[in-house]
Amino acid sequence: MNRKNIIYLGIAFLLGGVVIWNELRKVSLSEVYLELVTIKWQWLVVAVICMLLHWAVEARMIQLFLKRSNPDFSFKNAFRIPLIEHLFNAITPFSTGGQPAQILALGKSGVDYGVSASVSLMKFVIYQIWIVVNFVLCIILGFHWVSGNLEKLSYFILIGFAIHFFVVFCLLMVMFWHTGTQKIVNGFFNLARRFKIGRKLERKRESTLAKMDNFYEHSRYMKNEPVLMLKTSILTIAQLLVYYIVPYFILLALNTEDVNVLKVIVFHAFIIMIISLFPIPGGAGGAEYSFTLLFGTFVVIKSKLVLAIFLWRIVTYYMGIILGLIALVIQPDLDGNKVPESDT
């Protein structure tokens, strides 16, 4: 990690500490302690296992994507990648640092950097498609739970969905209507040039078109590998499910009665969508606020809700940061990870 990333890491922990402390100020510490000593730790362990499975499933996806170029890529090396990705997503605004970090980590693990970029791109596309499909289902099944009582929050949910849907729509246009999309992009830059003429705009046009061409070439490979896409899609669905269900086991650990598992999954999906709108690393503030509003609808004891927020952030956010730092320190096994002679 460079100095800039270390600063980001410090800011992430500082912001998180301020938010948690602000929540703790609203309740009696003695009440929080009483909730803490009655925790059913076995359910908290299950929540931790779910997060570990979340990263393990992604590691398996990486192995599948590398099967052709690096067939002996070990699970140990693969498991490092999502942890490092989580670390840099967690400490950078809008989670922009995750993809470059995982490409670099794959490269240092013996994978060609071009292949690393391809794996990152394919994983991103599949994840975006299924997160939108999943979110459509969540809106159908549970949007009525927030649209009435939490109208302002519902606007954030819809805005988050619209952004993710637009991203997927653009990706699909490049995949299946490449020539037409190029014309649209060129038309946009020609229109923009009327208002701002300069080399910078032309360089931006060239960069955008080059990235579109690169993505189109990778999408052709994806379309020619339906079995691989099916396997990674199933794994992505499983990855999302074990992540979204984490608050359910945290609430069980806190002796919350009559917990509706479907409602918890839907609410957690909504929270993740809201967090994506906040430029602050980890969505600090927005994450806790949305959790309070949504889960506060059936967790009526304030001390229990505050402790639930604290445990949720530890399991889904801070644990990944700590494991990501450990993954950075652990050196990858390079033996057997190099590209086979026949492929070079």
Automatic annotation (TrEMBL):
Membrane-crossing segments per the record: 5-21, 41-57, 124-147, 153-177, 228-253, 265-284, 305-330
> GO CC annotations?
plasma membrane
Q: Which domain of life is it from?
A: Bacteria
The membrane topology of this protein is: Multi-pass membrane protein
List the GO molecular function terms: phosphatidylglycerol lysyltransferase activity
Q: What does this protein do?
A: Catalyzes the transfer of a lysyl group from L-lysyl-tRNA(Lys) to membrane-bound phosphatidylglycerol (PG), which produces lysylphosphatidylglycerol (LPG), a major component of the bacterial membrane with a positive net charge. LPG synthesis contributes to bacterial virulence as it is involved in the resistance mechanism against cationic antimicrobial peptides (CAMP) produces by the host's immune system (defensins, cathelicidins) and by the competing microorganisms.
* PANTHER family attached to this UniProt entry: INTEGRAL MEMBRANE PROTEIN (PTHR37693:SF1), PHOSPHATIDYLGLYCEROL LYSYLTRANSFERASE (PTHR37693)
How is this protein named in the record?
A: Phosphatidylglycerol lysyltransferase
Organism of origin = Vagococcus hydrophili
Cite the source lineage.
Bacteria, Bacillati, Bacillota, Bacilli, Lactobacillales
